[in-house]
């Protein structure tokens, strides 16, 4: 998985590409670091270019949710498509995380 970020006054946005899976656990630290440094009120994770997510990747989203929530930052997962959307729906993450389809 690769990612790029942009910051605005209101949001930190992260665009994920490729596959989010167990082997990306180290990259999660980089994204958590972005949360820790963010002064924005929203943390947006755009998944429109993400091709695949496994159960470890779903768990990483939950970790990010906890990190943002502990800092009073609203996390939004935006535009999951195809198999990624299906995995998120099957895991019922929309009950915990704000998902913008």
Helix fraction, binned, reads 25-40%
- Distance linking N and C termini: 21 Å
Q: Which runs of at least 5 residues are low in confidence (pLDDT < 50)?
A: none
Structural class: alpha/beta
**Radius of gyration using CA atoms only:** 12 Å
The profile of the biggest β sheet is: 5 strands, mixed
N-to-C order of helices and strands: EEHEHEHE
- Tell me the strand order in the biggest sheet: 1-2-3-4-5
- Assembly status: single chain
Q: What's the β-strand tally?
A: 5
β-strand percent reads 35-45%
SS field, number of helical segments: 3
The residue-averaged pLDDT reads 96
Shape: globular
Question: How would you describe this structure to a colleague?
Answer:
It is a single chain. The protein is of the alpha/beta class and 101 residues long. The protein is 38% helix and 36% strand. The protein is built from 3 helices and 5 strands. Helix 1 runs parallel beside helix 2. The longest helix is centred in the middle third of the chain and has 16 residues. The protein is globular, with a radius of gyration of 12 Å.
Question: Which terms would index this structure?
Answer:
101 residues, globular, five-stranded mixed β-sheet, 5 strands, alpha/beta, 3 helices, single chain
């Amino acid at each position: 998985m690769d990612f790029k970020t942009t910051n605005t006054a209101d949001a930190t946005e992260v665009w994920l590409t490729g596959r989010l899976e167990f082997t990306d656990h180290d990259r999660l630290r980089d994204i958590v670091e972005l949360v820790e440094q963010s002064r924005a009120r929203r943390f947006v994770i755009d998944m429109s270019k993400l091709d695949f997510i496994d159960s470890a990747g779903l768990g990483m989203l939950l970790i990010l949710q906890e990190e943002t929530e502990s800092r009073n930052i609203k996390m939004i997962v935006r535009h999951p498509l195809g198999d990624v959307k299906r995995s998120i729906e099957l895991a019922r993450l929309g009950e915990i995380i704000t998902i913008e389809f």
